[in-house]
Amino acid sequence: MAADVKMLFCVGLIVVLTGVGKSALIGKTHGSGGEDLVLQYVVNNSLREHPVLTKLRLRTLQDQWSIMMVSSDQAQFMANLIRLINATKAIEIGMYTGYNALSMALAMPENGRVVACEIQDSYINIAKPFFKEAGVQNKIDIQHQTAMKTLSKCLCISHSRRTHTKRRRTVVTTSCLDCDGKVVNPAPSDQTSQSLDALNKKLHKDQRIDLSMLTVGDGLTLAIKR
Ligand SMILES: C[S@@+](CC[C@H](N)C(=O)[O-])C[C@H]1O[C@@H](n2cnc3c(N)ncnc32)[C@H](O)[C@@H]1O
Ligand SMILES: *[C@@H]1O[C@H](CO)[C@@H](O)[C@H](O)[C@H]1NC(C)=O
Ligand SMILES: *[C@@H]1O[C@H](CO)[C@@H](O)[C@H](O)[C@H]1NC(C)=O
């Protein structure tokens, strides 16, 4: 078991923002969920944020799109997932200012690698000094190009390696609810929520995976390869 290759894919789906609506379901600690007493309780009693993550979160809150940032409780859960399966590789699709990438890198051993895909260089420039300050810049491989390009390369490599490993644990995580729960009843014009809904329904039927959908942050699907 110890030599197995474990992977965690993180898909930070692009959320089209039309103002942060009220959420009956879920919330982000830095969004409308901040007023949710249960979420406040969760944060007050479970968050263990690395000091550099705190700094990065405060810096990101100055950005006009900061609502895109992962919720701290969600990032902590994903870091714990990494520890649980001893993941040494994670692919972050859409890194934004890097909160989740940094959080995952901090949870990995020295030989761990986070491949972080991001198209916008202004976000990468915000992220970099924080990765360095936390001393994990060598664990984070920033790919400044469309995620599709990076993914085709990564998946090709992992496919060729498959023959040499006995068994691998692959956990694919995606946001499943978008930030205000619109996916529950997506408007015909709302392509983001329509696609999320279609993906959720497709995964539900897929017998190749074990599945959980959590109402943390933007919603988190765990698809665990059988
Ligand atoms: C919801 S944010 C991700 C939040 C991030 N995971 C975090 O930890 O805070 C989505 C990000 O995906 C990036 N993005 C959008 N399309 C992309 C693409 N085709 N390839 C790579 N990144 C993309 C956006 O620039 C944005 O920064
Ligand atoms: C959480 O902690 C903050 C800051 O100490 C406090 O203002 C708030 O009332 C607490 N909320 C809950 C539900 O514990
Ligand atoms: C992860 O690594 C620890 C320490 O090396 C080991 O005890 C544990 O069994 C491993 N867990 C899995 C799921 O491989």
UniProtKB/TrEMBL annotation:
InterPro entries referenced in this protein's UniProt entry, alphabetically: Cation-dep_OMT, SAM-dependent_MTases_sf, SAM_O-MeTrfase
Signal peptide segment = 1-23
Question: Which keywords annotate this record?
Answer: Methyltransferase, S-adenosyl-L-methionine, Signal, Transferase
What molecular function does GO assign, one term?
Answer: O-methyltransferase activity
Biological process (GO) annotations? methylation
Q: Which domain of life is it from?
A: Eukaryota
In terms of SUPFAM superfamilies, this protein maps to: S-adenosyl-L-methionine-dependent methyltransferases (SSF53335)
Q: Which family does it belong to?
A: Belongs to the class I-like SAM-binding methyltransferase superfamily. Cation-dependent O-methyltransferase family.
Q: What is this protein called in UniProt?
A: Catechol-O-methyltransferase domain containing 1
The record lists the organism as: Amphiprion percula (Orange clownfish)
